[in-house]
Write a structure and sequence with these properties.
alpha+beta; two-stranded parallel sheet; disordered N terminus; 132 residues; 5 strands; single chain
Length: 132
């Protein structure tokens, strides 16, 4: 989430530029940042990159896949967690094996406050999704 003084993450800067031209267009920059910050907080990681692939024909909340790139012992577990987080945020994840492109990842330059907000947002969405 952008700070009062301005965004520092490259995705937040891209989001701000996009919204200045297309204010009603959907963007997944905030969700990528929030999932990244959530993983860092939840698993006490110094850094992680959440790579989101999209097919050229996908729009809105459609993505082809999610991969977490980091150096812990269990990166598959982190990728599964990120995959689930995008599902609870309302994304459809479908890889049709057509051409894809990778969306820019969050560089992690966020305040502690933004990290706590992202963690609370994702944890809340997971709780609502898992409860009957």
């Amino acid at each position: 989430m952008p700070t009062e003084t301005g965004a520092r993450c490259v995705l937040q800067l891209a989001r701000r530029r996009r919204l200045s031209v297309y204010p009603d267009e959907f963007g997944l920059e905030q969700d990528i940042c929030d999932v990244t910050l959530w993983l860092i907080e939840k698993h006490s990681l110094p850094r992680v990159h959440v790579w989101v692939d999209r097919h050229y024909t996908q729009i809105g909340r459609e993505i082809a896949g999610v991969t977490v790139m980091t150096s812990p012992r269990h990166p598959a577990r982190l990728t599964e967690a990120a995959h689930e987080a995008f599902l609870v945020l309302g994304y459809t994840i479908e890889d049709t094996r057509a051409d894809i492109y990778g969306h820019q990842f969050c560089d992690g330059h966020h305040s502690r406050h933004e990290a706590i907000q992202a963690y609370a947002r994702i944890e809340g969405a997971l709780r609502r999704w898992r409860s009957p």
